User: What shape does this take?
Amino acid sequence: MDPIHYNDMQFTVEKRGEGWDILYAKGGEAPAVAAAGLFPGAAEAEARTRALKVIRTVFPVGIRSVGPDVAHPTRVGDLRIVGPDVLHPNFIYWDKDSVTPEP
Amino acid sequence: MEIKGSVVLVTGGGNGIGEAVVKYFARRGAKVAIVDMVQKNIDRVVKDVKEMGAECIGIQANVTSEADTARFIQGTLEAFGQLNICVASAGIIRDGTMLNLDPETGQVSRKLGLDKWAAVIDTNLTGTFLTLRDAAEAMVNGGWPGLLVPISSVNKCGQVGQLNYSSAKVADALMPKIIIGEFLMRGIRNIRCVAIAPGYTATPMLTGMNQDALKAILEDVHLGRLVAPEEIASIIGTAAENEALNATTIEITGGLCYPKGIAK
Assistant: This one.
């Protein structure tokens, strides 16, 4: 099966016994196993399609949000609470939380 | 629930108790999803599990992020098609007493910072909540038999120097009663919840500590040694197989007594 190139990484899907292994490599390192023995009994085309779906979920492309998780707003009953609009001119960054001083 | 063929997700599965749980279930024919913060730990455990001949997937994630918990549940379902057992063993420590005094003046010289408080609460309590909540959502919607396993600690009783950790672990120990009460109220019958409260366990965190301090700890343990991670995994296996175990927290400490350091 041809390798899958995704998110600057190369994945290979290899048949092992009844199932399929997904291996990945990055930056010239030796390949690591991302998953083993998946989709037992699946044909090559089906295994490739399902592997690509798993790869997209497990190795997502994009920006990792740190702080308010606006993609998954909190729901309280009918209220939908989203993170603050950090670009609003009145938004205040509070960076004075206490930290433990070193002894 | 039969372990063979079931799908098990373990957070913190890249080392310590989590790794032992992953390997315990893999040896018995379960399919395992290994979730951890550290990719190299995931890679090592996935390789080991593959060599056992078991089905597995590794997913790097932060349990304090709702986006990540949603992602690792989704990844597990895409890989295996279902989820049966969820063990929330990801945890951290950031020890320190709430106040420190200057020995000369008797005045407060140092306070436990919000950084140490929030990091532990976020991982050990909020992370456990998010993991179990999203796992339960999948189990309910899928209609599969399920088991939720929060990991409490010896600190179900509380320990000095660990106000943050103890507060989170006491809450984790309470979860089975509340969750199963709510499931009963909502008519959810296919999922059980059993928390495990391990004592001092032979994880790298403890075995690598000052050996004199370790010896002092063991003086309070009737068993006379640290609990092995495999013994913790075994009790989780028992919880999976014995359906009468539910809505409770099981202590596995080797007989921990409380003469030193632990608030009764």
Remarks:
- Chain B has a mean pLDDT of 93.
- The radius of gyration of chain B is 19 Å.
